[in-house]
Automatic annotation (TrEMBL):
InterPro entries in alphabetical order: Aminotrans_IV (IPR001544), Aminotransferase-like (IPR036038), B_amino_transII (IPR005786), BCAT-like_C (IPR043132), BCAT-like_N (IPR043131)
One Pfam family linked to the record: Aminotran_4
Alphabetically ordered keywords of this record: Aminotransferase, Pyridoxal phosphate, Transferase
Keyword Transferase recorded: yes
UniProt keyword Kinase present: no
Family membership: Belongs to the class-IV pyridoxal-phosphate-dependent aminotransferase family.
Lineage summary: Eukaryota, Viridiplantae, Streptophyta, Embryophyta, Tracheophyta
Modified residues (N6-(pyridoxal phosphate)lysine): 168
PANTHER family given in the database record: AMINO ACID AMINOTRANSFERASE, BRANCHED-CHAIN-AMINO-ACID AMINOTRANSFERASE 7-RELATED
The protein's required cofactors: pyridoxal 5'-phosphate
A GO biological-process term: branched-chain amino acid metabolic process
GO MF entry, a single one: branched-chain-amino-acid transaminase activity
Protein name, as recorded: Branched-chain-amino-acid aminotransferase 6
Origin species: Quercus suber (Cork oak)
Length: 303
Protein backbone atom coordinates (compact mmCIF):
# COMPACT_ATOMS: atom_id res chain seq x y z
CA UNK A 1 0.00 0.00 0.00
CA UNK A 2 2.53 2.55 1.06
CA UNK A 3 5.00 3.48 -1.63
CA UNK A 4 8.42 1.87 -1.38
CA UNK A 5 10.74 3.74 0.91
CA UNK A 6 14.45 4.05 0.98
CA UNK A 7 15.08 4.78 4.62
CA UNK A 8 15.58 1.40 6.21
CA UNK A 9 18.29 2.40 8.65
CA UNK A 10 18.87 5.31 10.96
CA UNK A 11 22.03 6.26 9.15
CA UNK A 12 20.19 9.18 7.57
CA UNK A 13 21.69 8.35 4.17
CA UNK A 14 18.25 8.42 2.56
CA UNK A 15 16.42 11.21 4.28
CA UNK A 16 13.34 11.21 2.09
CA UNK A 17 10.99 8.55 0.80
CA UNK A 18 11.46 7.67 -2.85
CA UNK A 19 8.64 9.63 -4.49
CA UNK A 20 8.57 12.58 -6.84
CA UNK A 21 8.43 15.40 -4.31
CA UNK A 22 8.11 18.00 -7.07
CA UNK A 23 4.72 16.66 -8.06
CA UNK A 24 3.20 16.38 -4.64
CA UNK A 25 -0.51 17.13 -4.85
CA UNK A 26 -3.38 16.39 -2.51
CA UNK A 27 -3.50 12.69 -3.26
CA UNK A 28 -3.55 9.76 -0.92
CA UNK A 29 0.01 8.58 -0.28
CA UNK A 30 -0.18 6.91 3.12
CA UNK A 31 2.92 7.24 5.27
CA UNK A 32 4.30 3.92 6.59
CA UNK A 33 3.19 3.99 10.21
CA UNK A 34 0.15 4.90 12.23
CA UNK A 35 -0.63 5.33 15.89
CA UNK A 36 -3.47 3.26 17.33
CA UNK A 37 -5.02 3.08 20.76
CA UNK A 38 -8.38 2.08 22.21
CA UNK A 39 -10.33 2.53 25.39
CA UNK A 40 -13.56 1.43 26.95
CA UNK A 41 -16.35 4.05 26.81
CA UNK A 42 -16.39 4.22 30.62
CA UNK A 43 -12.65 4.81 30.81
CA UNK A 44 -10.10 7.34 29.69
CA UNK A 45 -7.28 6.86 27.24
CA UNK A 46 -3.89 6.15 28.79
CA UNK A 47 -0.53 6.67 27.14
CA UNK A 48 0.69 3.15 28.02
CA UNK A 49 -1.56 1.32 25.57
CA UNK A 50 -0.89 3.35 22.43
CA UNK A 51 1.22 1.79 19.69
CA UNK A 52 2.91 2.73 16.46
CA UNK A 53 2.09 0.02 13.92
CA UNK A 54 2.52 -0.32 10.16
CA UNK A 55 -0.14 1.57 8.22
CA UNK A 56 -2.91 -0.86 7.29
CA UNK A 57 -6.67 -1.20 7.08
CA UNK A 58 -8.42 -1.39 10.43
CA UNK A 59 -10.94 -4.09 11.28
CA UNK A 60 -14.18 -2.96 12.90
CA UNK A 61 -17.59 -4.51 13.38
CA UNK A 62 -20.27 -3.67 10.81
CA UNK A 63 -22.26 -2.60 13.90
CA UNK A 64 -19.56 -0.06 14.84
CA UNK A 65 -20.97 3.20 16.19
CA UNK A 66 -18.98 5.16 13.67
CA UNK A 67 -20.45 3.31 10.66
CA UNK A 68 -24.07 3.33 11.77
CA UNK A 69 -24.41 6.50 13.80
CA UNK A 70 -21.40 8.58 12.86
CA UNK A 71 -19.81 8.72 16.28
CA UNK A 72 -16.70 10.89 15.81
CA UNK A 73 -16.15 14.14 17.72
CA UNK A 74 -15.31 13.71 21.45
CA UNK A 75 -17.38 15.35 24.22
CA UNK A 76 -20.25 16.62 22.10
CA UNK A 77 -20.75 13.07 20.80
CA UNK A 78 -20.26 11.45 24.19
CA UNK A 79 -16.82 9.92 23.77
CA UNK A 80 -13.78 10.03 26.04
CA UNK A 81 -10.81 11.74 24.37
CA UNK A 82 -7.05 11.62 24.97
CA UNK A 83 -5.49 14.32 27.15
CA UNK A 84 -3.62 17.14 25.39
CA UNK A 85 -0.29 15.63 26.57
CA UNK A 86 -1.25 12.22 25.23
CA UNK A 87 -2.37 13.76 21.94
CA UNK A 88 0.87 15.71 21.47
CA UNK A 89 2.98 12.67 22.40
CA UNK A 90 1.08 10.47 19.95
CA UNK A 91 1.50 13.04 17.15
CA UNK A 92 5.25 13.20 17.87
CA UNK A 93 5.56 9.41 17.73
CA UNK A 94 3.63 9.28 14.46
CA UNK A 95 5.75 12.00 12.84
CA UNK A 96 9.02 10.46 14.04
CA UNK A 97 8.01 7.03 12.75
CA UNK A 98 7.21 8.62 9.38
CA UNK A 99 10.01 11.16 9.27
CA UNK A 100 11.14 10.38 5.76
CA UNK A 101 7.60 11.25 4.59
CA UNK A 102 8.01 14.84 5.83
CA UNK A 103 8.44 16.68 2.51
CA UNK A 104 11.69 18.53 1.77
CA UNK A 105 11.46 22.27 2.62
CA UNK A 106 9.16 24.10 0.23
CA UNK A 107 7.67 20.94 -1.30
CA UNK A 108 4.70 20.47 0.99
CA UNK A 109 3.74 19.25 4.44
CA UNK A 110 3.07 16.05 6.29
CA UNK A 111 -0.70 16.06 6.80
CA UNK A 112 -1.27 14.45 10.18
CA UNK A 113 -4.79 13.11 10.72
CA UNK A 114 -6.06 12.28 14.17
CA UNK A 115 -9.30 10.30 14.30
CA UNK A 116 -11.45 9.53 17.31
CA UNK A 117 -14.22 7.02 16.58
CA UNK A 118 -16.83 4.93 18.28
CA UNK A 119 -15.37 1.64 17.05
CA UNK A 120 -17.30 -0.83 19.22
CA UNK A 121 -20.57 -2.46 18.06
CA UNK A 122 -23.94 -0.94 19.03
CA UNK A 123 -27.54 -1.62 18.12
CA UNK A 124 -29.32 1.17 19.95
CA UNK A 125 -28.57 4.88 20.12
CA UNK A 126 -25.86 4.78 22.75
CA UNK A 127 -22.14 5.42 22.96
CA UNK A 128 -20.13 2.62 21.35
CA UNK A 129 -18.57 0.35 24.02
CA UNK A 130 -15.10 0.84 22.56
CA UNK A 131 -13.54 4.09 21.35
CA UNK A 132 -10.48 4.13 19.08
CA UNK A 133 -8.00 6.91 18.60
CA UNK A 134 -5.81 6.72 15.49
CA UNK A 135 -3.26 9.03 13.92
CA UNK A 136 -2.07 8.49 10.38
CA UNK A 137 -0.30 10.73 7.94
CA UNK A 138 0.12 11.58 4.29
CA UNK A 139 2.54 13.99 2.57
CA UNK A 140 0.65 16.71 0.67
CA UNK A 141 1.22 19.70 -1.56
CA UNK A 142 -1.32 22.49 -1.93
CA UNK A 143 -5.01 21.65 -1.58
CA UNK A 144 -6.24 24.36 -3.92
CA UNK A 145 -4.27 25.24 -7.03
CA UNK A 146 -4.76 29.01 -6.72
CA UNK A 147 -7.36 31.55 -5.67
CA UNK A 148 -10.88 30.22 -5.25
CA UNK A 149 -13.99 31.06 -7.23
CA UNK A 150 -16.90 30.44 -4.92
CA UNK A 151 -20.58 29.95 -5.64
CA UNK A 152 -23.06 31.03 -2.99
CA UNK A 153 -25.33 28.12 -2.10
CA UNK A 154 -28.64 29.22 -0.62
CA UNK A 155 -30.71 26.03 -0.76
CA UNK A 156 -28.61 23.38 0.96
CA UNK A 157 -27.53 24.14 4.52
CA UNK A 158 -24.24 22.87 5.81
CA UNK A 159 -25.00 23.56 9.45
CA UNK A 160 -27.77 24.93 11.62
CA UNK A 161 -27.62 26.66 15.01
CA UNK A 162 -27.88 24.04 17.74
CA UNK A 163 -26.50 21.41 15.39
CA UNK A 164 -22.94 20.16 15.07
CA UNK A 165 -21.37 22.59 12.59
CA UNK A 166 -18.98 23.76 15.27
CA UNK A 167 -17.38 20.40 16.01
CA UNK A 168 -15.26 18.00 13.97
CA UNK A 169 -17.91 15.47 13.06
CA UNK A 170 -18.23 13.03 10.23
CA UNK A 171 -21.25 14.98 8.94
CA UNK A 172 -19.27 18.12 8.12
CA UNK A 173 -18.48 17.05 4.60
CA UNK A 174 -20.49 14.39 2.78
CA UNK A 175 -23.82 16.27 3.13
CA UNK A 176 -22.32 19.00 0.94
CA UNK A 177 -20.62 16.77 -1.66
CA UNK A 178 -23.61 17.20 -3.92
CA UNK A 179 -23.60 21.00 -3.78
CA UNK A 180 -19.82 21.03 -4.31
CA UNK A 181 -20.01 18.61 -7.25
CA UNK A 182 -22.70 20.77 -8.90
CA UNK A 183 -20.65 23.95 -8.36
CA UNK A 184 -17.49 22.26 -9.73
CA UNK A 185 -19.40 21.12 -12.80
CA UNK A 186 -20.10 24.82 -13.42
CA UNK A 187 -16.41 25.66 -13.11
CA UNK A 188 -16.34 26.97 -9.54
CA UNK A 189 -13.70 25.83 -7.04
CA UNK A 190 -15.98 25.51 -4.04
CA UNK A 191 -19.21 26.53 -2.38
CA UNK A 192 -19.87 29.32 0.10
CA UNK A 193 -22.55 28.38 2.60
CA UNK A 194 -24.54 31.19 4.14
CA UNK A 195 -24.65 31.47 7.89
CA UNK A 196 -25.73 33.63 9.63
CA UNK A 197 -10.16 48.48 5.57
CA UNK A 198 -7.99 47.17 8.24
CA UNK A 199 -10.79 45.16 9.57
CA UNK A 200 -10.88 41.40 9.13
CA UNK A 201 -14.28 39.89 9.77
CA UNK A 202 -15.02 36.26 10.46
CA UNK A 203 -18.36 34.72 11.30
CA UNK A 204 -18.86 34.42 15.04
CA UNK A 205 -18.70 30.96 16.55
CA UNK A 206 -22.30 30.25 17.46
CA UNK A 207 -23.01 26.68 16.57
CA UNK A 208 -22.44 26.52 12.81
CA UNK A 209 -18.77 27.45 12.44
CA UNK A 210 -16.01 25.15 13.63
CA UNK A 211 -13.56 27.06 15.83
CA UNK A 212 -10.62 25.77 13.78
CA UNK A 213 -7.04 26.08 14.95
CA UNK A 214 -6.07 27.79 11.68
CA UNK A 215 -8.83 30.39 12.10
CA UNK A 216 -7.63 31.00 15.66
CA UNK A 217 -3.97 31.24 14.62
CA UNK A 218 -4.79 33.67 11.79
CA UNK A 219 -6.83 35.87 14.16
CA UNK A 220 -3.82 36.06 16.49
CA UNK A 221 -1.39 36.77 13.65
CA UNK A 222 -3.72 39.46 12.23
CA UNK A 223 -4.02 41.13 15.65
CA UNK A 224 -0.21 41.03 15.89
CA UNK A 225 0.00 42.82 12.53
CA UNK A 226 -2.32 45.50 13.91
CA UNK A 227 -5.52 44.52 12.12
CA UNK A 228 -8.79 44.88 13.92
CA UNK A 229 -10.50 41.49 13.92
CA UNK A 230 -14.22 41.27 14.41
CA UNK A 231 -16.20 38.11 14.95
CA UNK A 232 -19.75 38.84 13.94
CA UNK A 233 -22.67 37.76 11.82
CA UNK A 234 -21.71 38.61 8.24
CA UNK A 235 -24.71 39.41 6.02
CA UNK A 236 -24.30 38.43 2.37
CA UNK A 237 -24.50 42.08 1.25
CA UNK A 238 -21.28 42.80 3.16
CA UNK A 239 -19.45 40.51 0.74
CA UNK A 240 -20.33 42.87 -2.13
CA UNK A 241 -18.29 45.55 -0.45
CA UNK A 242 -14.96 44.09 0.69
CA UNK A 243 -11.47 44.02 -0.85
CA UNK A 244 -10.40 40.52 -0.01
CA UNK A 245 -11.90 37.23 1.08
CA UNK A 246 -10.02 34.15 2.22
CA UNK A 247 -10.64 30.74 3.78
CA UNK A 248 -8.62 29.00 6.48
CA UNK A 249 -8.08 25.41 7.61
CA UNK A 250 -5.26 22.94 8.23
CA UNK A 251 -5.59 21.49 4.73
CA UNK A 252 -6.05 24.76 2.81
CA UNK A 253 -3.92 26.91 5.17
CA UNK A 254 -5.02 30.38 3.93
CA UNK A 255 -6.71 30.27 0.54
CA UNK A 256 -7.55 33.53 -1.23
CA UNK A 257 -10.98 33.76 -2.88
CA UNK A 258 -10.93 35.30 -6.36
CA UNK A 259 -14.70 35.61 -6.78
CA UNK A 260 -18.06 34.84 -5.26
CA UNK A 261 -21.16 34.30 -7.36
CA UNK A 262 -24.67 34.65 -5.97
CA UNK A 263 -27.40 34.00 -8.51
CA UNK A 264 -26.21 36.01 -11.52
CA UNK A 265 -24.15 38.48 -9.51
CA UNK A 266 -20.39 37.87 -9.41
CA UNK A 267 -18.00 39.86 -7.22
CA UNK A 268 -14.24 39.71 -7.70
CA UNK A 269 -11.62 40.15 -5.03
CA UNK A 270 -7.96 41.06 -4.82
CA UNK A 271 -5.57 38.08 -4.78
CA UNK A 272 -1.82 37.72 -5.22
CA UNK A 273 1.32 39.40 -3.93
CA UNK A 274 0.17 42.54 -2.14
CA UNK A 275 -2.72 41.06 -0.21
CA UNK A 276 -3.49 40.64 3.45
CA UNK A 277 -4.15 36.94 2.94
CA UNK A 278 -0.66 36.50 1.44
CA UNK A 279 0.88 38.30 4.40
CA UNK A 280 -1.05 36.07 6.85
CA UNK A 281 -0.21 32.92 4.85
CA UNK A 282 3.51 33.81 4.80
CA UNK A 283 3.56 34.42 8.53
CA UNK A 284 1.73 31.21 9.45
CA UNK A 285 3.75 28.97 7.12
CA UNK A 286 6.93 30.82 8.14
CA UNK A 287 6.28 29.89 11.77
CA UNK A 288 5.29 26.33 10.82
CA UNK A 289 8.46 25.72 8.82
CA UNK A 290 10.85 27.50 11.16
CA UNK A 291 11.68 30.27 8.67
CA UNK A 292 10.22 32.85 11.04
CA UNK A 293 10.89 32.86 14.77
CA UNK A 294 7.92 31.45 16.68
CA UNK A 295 7.06 34.10 19.24
CA UNK A 296 3.67 32.49 19.80
CA UNK A 297 4.95 29.23 21.32
CA UNK A 298 3.05 27.17 18.74
CA UNK A 299 5.81 24.89 17.48
CA UNK A 300 7.03 21.71 19.15
CA UNK A 301 10.40 20.09 18.49
CA UNK A 302 10.15 16.37 18.13
CA UNK A 303 13.65 15.13 17.44
C1 LIG B 1 -11.71 20.82 10.07
C2 LIG B 1 -12.68 21.89 9.83
C3 LIG B 1 -12.25 23.23 9.72
C4 LIG B 1 -10.80 23.63 9.81
O1 LIG B 1 -10.30 23.52 11.10
P1 LIG B 1 -8.72 23.48 11.37
O2 LIG B 1 -8.63 23.22 12.86
O3 LIG B 1 -8.19 24.82 11.01
O4 LIG B 1 -8.17 22.38 10.52
C5 LIG B 1 -13.20 24.21 9.50
N1 LIG B 1 -14.51 23.90 9.38
C6 LIG B 1 -14.95 22.63 9.48
C7 LIG B 1 -16.42 22.36 9.34
C8 LIG B 1 -14.06 21.57 9.70
O5 LIG B 1 -14.52 20.30 9.79
Amino acid sequence: MASPTQTKSDSGAEKYADINWDELGFDLVPADYMYVTKCDKEENFTTEVGNIIPYANIAISPFAGILNYGQIGAERLCMPSPSIEHFVEAVKQTVLANKHWVPPPGKGSLYVRPLLIGSGPVLSLVTAPEISFLIYACPVGNYHKGPLNLLVEDKTHRATPGGTGDIKTITNYSPVYKAIAQAKARGFSDVLFLDAGNVISTPAICGTILPGITRKSIIEIALGFGYQVEERVIPLVDLFDVDEVFCTGTAVVVSPVASITYGDKRIEYKTGAETVSKKLYDMLTGIQTGRIEDKMGWTVEID
